[in-house]
Amino acid sequence: MSAQARPSQLFKNLNAKIASIPMILTALVVFVGGTFWTILYSFTDSKLLPRLRFVGLDQYERLWSAPRWLTSIENLLIYGILSLIFSLVIGFLLAALLDQKIRFEDTFRTIFLYPFALSFIVTGLVWQWILNPDFGVQKVVRSLGFDSFVFDPLYNSDIVIYGILIAGLWQGTGLIMCLMLAGLRGIDEDIWKAARVDGIPMWKTYLFIVIPMMRPVFITTLVIIASGIVKLYDLVVAQTGGGPGIASEVPAKYVYDFMFRAQNLGQGFAGSTMMLLSVAIVIIPWAYLEFGGKKRV
Amino acid sequence: MSDPTLSSAGAAATVGSPGLVSGPAGPRPRRRFSRRNIFLYGTLFVIAVYYLLPLYVMVVTSLKGMPEVRLGNIFSPPVEITFEPWVKAWSEACTGLNCDGLSRGFWNSVRITVPSVILSIAIASINGYALANWRFKGSETFFVILIFGAFIPYQVMLYPIVILLREIGLYGTLWGLVIVHSIFGMPILTLLFRNYFTSLPEELFKAARVDGAGFWGIYFRIMVPMSLPIFVVAMILQITGIWNDFLFGVVYTKPDIYPMTVQLNNIVNSVQGVKEYNVNMAATILTGLVPLVVYFVSGKLFVRGIAAGAVKG
Asked: What domains, with CATH codes, occur in chain A?
């Protein structure tokens, strides 16, 4: 590229700059500005309206001593870890099954992926109905003769988060399957032939050759799942509303309720800043590995 | 498999006489009902049933009358098919004091989704075009900020946006929500368009420059006509995404213009009144219908759209 600065180019670039104004505004005002605004105001005692009266770490102290926030974090950890593991395992297994040169591959893929087109609200409501102890699975199994059968995850505060996990996995595993399938299709056919010639069993080929080769796909998928988990909100609202009691509260709901219902903005800001922090812990090392490494090459 | 010619050929091969066919060439034909295939298709079939079950339960429940729902089994097909729950969900179901059904939420969602899809795609495609072909100093920096912004939890930006919208007088209005959707759709769509425009041959762009076309000329006459597939992918992504949104709808609008998802949640999870599960399920299907239709009609393009979100720039 010869960098000859002609006057006309300057003018044309002006056009590009004008066209990029929405992007620049979004990036600077909303994403950067909004984030710093929230962080700044999380150190104030804002109640109904935001005001700049700093109280240090008061909001955070109150946050981390609130039983509801602690339950939220515990739920998010359980949901997050299990959903990461199960999404990856189920997603990969489904992709591996579909990758066996089977017939009707498109049909099966369409079936596994369609829940992803549905909203979390729809997902939550359907599973609320299926898991309803008076009408759903519990009643059906009981009517088969197992009178003492108990399966009411949404009404039992000890296991309610697993009921949400079932719905979340149903909705999300199709996406992971698609990403994994794309990764598997990117593997060279010759690898399979070589493994077969060497007499390596299929499961070993997957475990020790194919999966290590798909490392980038796994990392990308991991980041996608992880950043989605923190946003978990609609599903809980639809399926349980945070109940029974506060047993299925999640951080995103805590933040919303304190910002727009309880009129305690400071708590909302502190909670959302903690959410940002947890995302940063995942994203920054990933970005460093991904983009930091690229520049050096 | 006792084909005489086969066995004779095999015999000949063992003798090793030259010039004769030495057994069948090529891979061994697979038997259709091998144990492997039965296991494979059996597993796939069971999983497929599991994935389809909720959809089936929704449809079946919505076609039953309430007495049948109470007595029967959620998995059993309706004895007497009735469309009354659908009618009721569409035009009579109550949210708070309003009893005009989900139809209002449906039309709200249409009025939100259509301008949001158009605006967000227009902005993002122009952004992507500028980033791919008209880089200026700092453009990449803004793009990186934008991409990182996609990972910031929405909750962090909820309240600052409330203030911004209030300042320009759009808080609680439909257009306010349209702007919010355009903002949050921007990172992924800009990435999508930037990558696509970068993949187009650069000679095309240069030739147009030589012929005297400017920024907008090249965009409208060359880039847009050449990129219709990616526009369709972006539309699919946005229609399903915006239709399914709940959080922004509940934060940035007022009850009369609540989108369908918010209204659905209010109808089903309202505490007052007798629960009509068949009406609830009919309402749930109605809300899921638009993205489902988009999904089944678009097929592979949908997969491409969601995969685009995963492919890093």
From this structure: 60-296 (1.10.3720.10)
The CATH number fitting domain B104-310, selected from 1.20.120.80, 3.20.20.70, 3.40.50.720, 1.10.3720.10: 1.10.3720.10
- The token duo for B294 is 């988009």
Token pair belonging to A56: 């240090």
Residues of A with Cβ-Cβ distance to B243 under 8 angstroms: 119
CB A123 within 8 A of CB A235: yes
Q: Please work out, in degrees rounded to the nearest 5, the angle formed at the alpha carbon of residue B116 by the alpha carbons of A126 and B172.
A: 80
**Residue A158 burial by CB count (10 A; 0-12/13-18/19+): exposed, middle or buried?**
exposed
Per-residue buried b or exposed e for A202-236, using 16+ beta carbons within 10 Å of the residue's own CB = eeebbeebbbeebeebbebbbbbbbbebbbbbbbb
Domain ranges of chain B: 32-82, 104-310
E strand or H helix that includes residue A265: helix A265-287
Searching chain A, which residue's CA lies closest to the CA of residue B136? A13
Which residues in chain A are contacts of B43 at CB distance < 8 A? 97
Chain B residue numbers with beta carbons less than 8 Å from the beta carbon of A69 are: none
- Nearest-neighbour CA in chain A from B204: distance (Å): 16
Q: Going residue by residue through chain B, which has 313 residues, state the pLDDT in tens, using 9 for 90 and above.
A: 344 444 444 444 444 444 445 556 666 666 667 888 888 899 999 999 999 999 999 999 999 888 888 888 888 888 888 888 899 888 888 777 777 888 889 999 999 999 999 999 999 999 999 999 888 888 888 898 988 888 889 999 999 999 999 999 999 899 999 999 999 999 989 988 998 898 888 888 889 989 888 889 999 998 999 888 889 989 988 999 999 999 999 999 988 899 999 999 988 888 777 788 899 999 999 999 999 999 999 878 888 777 765 543 3
Q: How far apart are CA A38 and CA A283, in angstroms?
A: 19
